[in-house]
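Ticket 4471: requesting a sanity check on a complex prediction with manganese (II) ion. Repro inputs:
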Amino acid sequence: MEEKNPVQELKDQLFSKKENIYAVADEEKCKTIFTYAEGYKAFLNLAKTERESVRCAIEAAKERGYSQYRLGEPLKAGGKYYYNNRNKNLYLFRIGTEDLQQHGMRILAAHIDSPRIDLKQIPLYEDSEMAFFKTHYYGGIKKYQWTALPLALHGVVVLRDGSTVDITVGERDEDPVFYINDLLPHLSQEQYTKPLSAAIPGEKLNILVGGIPVKDGGDNAIKLGVLKILHDLYGIVEDDFISAELSAVPAFKARDVGFDRAFIGAYGHDDRVCAYPAVTALLESVSDAHTVMAVLADKEEIGSDGSTGMQSMVFLDLINEIARAMGKNPAAVRAASKCLSADVNAAFDPNFADVYEKRNSAVISCGTTMSKYTGSRGKSSSNDADAEFVGFVSKLFRDHGVAFQTSELGKVDLGGGGTVAKFIASLNIDTVDLGVPVISMHAPYEVVSKADLYSTYEAFRAFIDG
Ligand code: MN
Ligand code: MN
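Returned structure tokens:
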């Protein structure tokens, strides 16, 4: 055997090292990574909205023996429960064997809402032989990316009789899709001079939905034709849009990206790419010591407000209920609890290298990435996790052989972002951000690495089993 150069030995001992997981994984590990990705892609194709994500997670949880819990009902040690908050926000939890007051809970919190195009409450109109829906976009989108794409419509409409109809159009091959018109290059001289942020104003994100008038229909005959179809199919009249939540999302399916299939392209990786490993880690967990909760939050993309967002009191109520059911003090349980705020981060992109600080950016395929702090311009609005907690989590990952890296979002003073971490931390729960690095975050089609997805799953397993 060749002797190691002492300087090299010292470097190996002292320097931090970031490695491409694909470069170091053996064949079997690569196979595991790819198999896990297939399950994730299937989930992505079924769950493009928070409601669909909740539905999928409940189905999977029921198969693993989880039963529905309603506030005020009794809870048992060893029990496995789900709490469905308005079909848009889900809490899966299992009560462990160890002392809850001493050890607290292990919480994984991801969000299941993604940027999209929502319909306004009075959406349908007709102009120049076309019918359109007026929209109000949801979350931080680059509006110019959402034109000239096939869109699918997902959501619910509460009819005047009080019944609810589910609508999904545009996902099956035989379905029609919808479309936001863009301007042809030939007439774009003026548009080209505008900044990207102003080139497509929000009020131009109108969705093309029809073009055949009702025979001898007079004014608004195309609008009438569209409404007649909606009435025949779903019983909808125009006023029912008032009590609807309908969203246009990209009609694309999740696909492998690259000749070697290293990556997955899909709509809504942010944050289903953390929600999926959070749920599967909990459901596949073999240890029963810790009390574990997986939170699938709604409304993160618009500030985590509302009854189904991370700031909803229901999160606190559930922890209180669990603590009291086990005869423990809720405040003490929270003080002993630990949380991974599971959300995506930006992957370093050499095409836009100037906005990143390379040494402190997540590199794709180098593993799940931990962010001690988020925020913008001077860590503003950030949960800056304690060194002690970051140390605890890092040790746990090292002890379990989890590949992870650490990063912040872009250069200081350039921009920034937030997650649900600060809302959980404010309840006196140790919290740090961890999740999958993403290319083209918030675009209609985002890209992640299968290796990072699986590394995030391994990190969650270590956190709840370790
Ligand atoms: Mn997110
Ligand atoms: Mn986001």
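Notes from triage: The chain has a mean pLDDT of 97. Leaving this open until the requester confirms.
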